[in-house]
Amino acid sequence: MPGPSPLDDPKKAAYAWARYRRLMRFMFAFTVVTVIVALTVIYTQVENVSPHFFIATALGIGFSMLLMSALMGLVFLSSGTGHDESVENSLDDLDPQAPPPFDHRKARWKD
User: Fold this and answer.
1) Which value, to the nearest 10 degrees, does the dihedral of the CA atoms of residues 10, 14, 16, 20 take?
2) What percent of the chain has pLDDT over 90?
3) Which of these, 65, 83, 62, 85, lies nearest to 74 by C-alpha position?
4) Using CA atoms, how far apart are residues 4 and 99, in angstroms rounded to an integer?
5) CB atoms within 10 A of CB 81
6) How far apart are CA 26 and CA 55, in angstroms?
7) What pLDDT, in 10s, does the model give residues 1-45?
8) Which of 31, 40, 70, 100 shows the smallest number of beta carbons within 10 Å?
9) 50 φ, ψ (degrees, to nearest 5)
10) Phi, psi (5° rounding) for residue 92?
C-alpha cells in the first residue's frame, strides 16, 4: 500500500501549487517575449510573408513552449514535494519467476 503523499497536507499542497502557478506565470511572460522576438525577426528578415504565417508561427511557438512548461512544471511539483518517493512500485513483486533485471555493468562481449 502506498504511503501518504506530502500533498495530502493542505499547507504543503498550497505552497506547492503556488510555486507551480508562479513558474507558469514566469514561463507565460517568457513565451510572450520569445514569440514577439521571433515575429520581429521574421518581419525584418523575410519579405512578402502572409499574415497567416505570423499567426501560425505565434501559435506554434506559444503552444509548444506553454505545453513544455506545464509538463515540466508538474514534474518539478511532483519531485519537489516528495510525492514521487511516496509511490510504491509493486510491479516487481507480481511475477516471482521473472529473471532478475539485466545488469549492463556485468555484461561481456560474446563471440
Assistant:
1) 150
2) 49
3) 83
4) 31
5) 21
6) 23
7) 566 777 778 888 888 889 999 999 999 999 999 999 999 999 999
8) 100
9) -65, 145
10) -65, -25
Report DSSP state, residue 98.
S
What is the distance of C-alpha 81 from the center of its chain? Answer: 15
- The residues spanned by each domain of the chain are 6-82
**Amino acid identity, position 54:** F
Q: How far apart are alpha carbons 79 and 99 in whole angstroms?
A: 30
The stretches of the chain forming alpha helices (DSSP H) are: 10-45, 51-80
Q: Chain centroid to CA 107: how far?
A: 33
The burial class, CB within 10 Å (0-12 / 13-18 / 19+), for 19 is middle
94 DSSP 8-state letter:
S
CA distances from 96 to 4, 90, 93 (A): 27, 12, 6
